[in-house]
C-alpha cells in the first residue's frame, strides 16, 4: 500500500474536481461524503475559488434573523450566522424586553504599525518623523485615491520608542472599508521614507487589530416592570462577578461575542479581527474586564452599556463577494460601516443581557436542553416531524441520549 503524503505538489493549481478526488482518496471518504463536497450552495464553485486557495467545498452555516430590535428608533431585522443554538432566540428576547437601543460610534480610524529597528537615536528619530509628518501623510495619501475621494485617508503619524525599537503608527480613516488593505499598503509605501528619515530599517508593516480609535457604543434600558426587580438584582450580581474575576469576565465577553461575531460572519466581515480587537480592548490600560457595564438608574430600571472596537466594513472583501453576505447587509439596511458596527454593539449587548438574565435566574441548561434533544434525535436518525416528537419525549424522560432516541424511533417503550 502506498504511503499517505500530505506534501502534494501543485495542489493549488489542480482543478477543483481533482483536489476533491485527492482528498477523497487520502481520507477514505465514501461516495456519499465526496458527493456532499460537490455542493457549493449559494456561494457557488467559482466564487468560492475566488475567495481562498485550495478550495474543495463550500461550507454552510445557518442564518437566523433576530427580531424585535429598535436601534435609534429604527426597526431592524438582524441576520446572524452561527452554529450555536439559543443565541438568535436570546438576542430577540433581550431586544423584545428592552426599550430599544441607542448607539454611537467614533470615526473609522485604523492604526497601521511600522516597526523600525537599528535606529541609532530613537528620541531624535521621533522628532524627525514629527517634522516630516506632512510629507509622510502625502505619500500615504497617494496610495488610495478612492478612499480619499470618499472622505477617508491618512490622518496622523505617531512614533514612540520601545525596547530598542522605534514604533510608528499611521492613523487612517478608512470610511466604509474594513481597511486592512489600504492601511497595510500605506504602511509599506511610507516605510522607505521612514528608513531615510531615521537611518533605521523597517521590519513589520501591518495594521493593528486593537482599533482603539474605531469603537462603537450601545446603550439600553430594561424596565423593572418588565423584567422584575429580583431579576435586576440577580443580573447586577452576575455583572459584579464578571467585573471582579477574569475567569468569569472571559465567558461574559464570549457571550457578547456570540452576537457580535454572528453579525460579522453574516455580513462577510473578518470575525477574527473583531474577536482579537474586542478581547484586547477588554484589557486595554486595565485588567481584563467585561466589555459591558450594568447599573440601575434612578427609577430602578436596569441600564446596560457596551463599547468595543469594531473594524468592520460594508464595502470590499466578502461583504461584496459572498452572495448571502450581500443580502445580509441589505436586510440590515445599513448606510455604512459605522452603522453596521453600532448594530453589532447593540446585538452584543442584547446577548450579554440575555445570558446574564438566564444564568442568574433559571440557568441556561433548560433552554439548551430542548435544542440539544433535537440534535440528539437527528443524530439517532429521526426525520421530519419525528425530530420534534422524539426530542420532546427525551426531554420529558430527562434522558437525552442517542441510545434512548434510537429506542424511541424503534418503538420501544420507556423502561419502568
Ligand atoms: C455561551 O455561548 C455563552 C454564555 O456562556 C455567556 C455567559 O456565560 O455570559 C452563556
Topology:
Layout: H1 16-27, H2 31-37, H3 45-51, E1 63-71, E2 74-81, H4 87-97, E3 101-105, E4 109-117, H5 122-131, H6 133-141, H7 145-149, E5 153-162, E6 165-173, H8 180-198, E7 201-208, E8 215-222, H9 224-227, H10 229-244, H11 246-266, H12 271-281, E9 292-296, E10 302-309, H13 318-321, H14 323-332, H15 337-360, H16 365-379, H17 385-397, H18 402-409
Antiparallel strand pairs: 1-2, 3-8, 4-6, 4-7, 5-6, 8-10, 9-10
Helix pairs in contact: 4-15, 6-8, 10-11, 10-15, 11-12, 11-15, 16-17, 17-18
Pfam family, one: HMG-CoA_red
Keywords: Oxidoreductase
Protein name: 3-hydroxy-3-methylglutaryl coenzyme A reductase
Please give a structural write-up.
The protein is an alpha+beta fold and 416 residues long. It folds into four domains: 11-51, no CATH class; 63-105 and 216-361, Alpha-Beta Complex (3-hydroxy-3-methylglutaryl-coenzyme A Reductase, Chain A, domain 2), CATH 3.90.770; 109-207, Alpha-Beta Plaits (2-Layer Sandwich), CATH 3.30.70.420; 367-409, no CATH class. The chain has helices at 16-27, 31-37, 45-51, 87-97, 122-131, 133-141, 145-149, 180-198, 224-227, 229-244, 246-266, 271-281, 318-321, 323-332, 337-360, 365-379, 385-397, 402-409, and strands spanning 63-71, 74-81, 101-105, 109-117, 153-162, 165-173, 201-208, 215-222, 292-296, 302-309. β5 (153-162) and β6 (165-173) form a beta hairpin. The protein is globular, with a radius of gyration of 26 Å. The structure holds (R)-mevalonate. (R)-mevalonate binds at residues 84, 251-252, 254-255, 258, 355-356, 359, 364. The site of (R)-mevalonate has 10 residues, from α11 and α15. InterPro entries: HMG_CoA_Rdtase, HMG_CoA_Rdtase_bac-typ, HMG_CoA_Rdtase_cat_sf, HMG_CoA_Rdtase_CS, HMG_CoA_Rdtase_NAD(P)-bd_sf, HMG_CoA_Rdtase_sub-bd_dom_sf. It holds the Pfam family HMG-CoA_red. This is 3-hydroxy-3-methylglutaryl coenzyme A reductase.
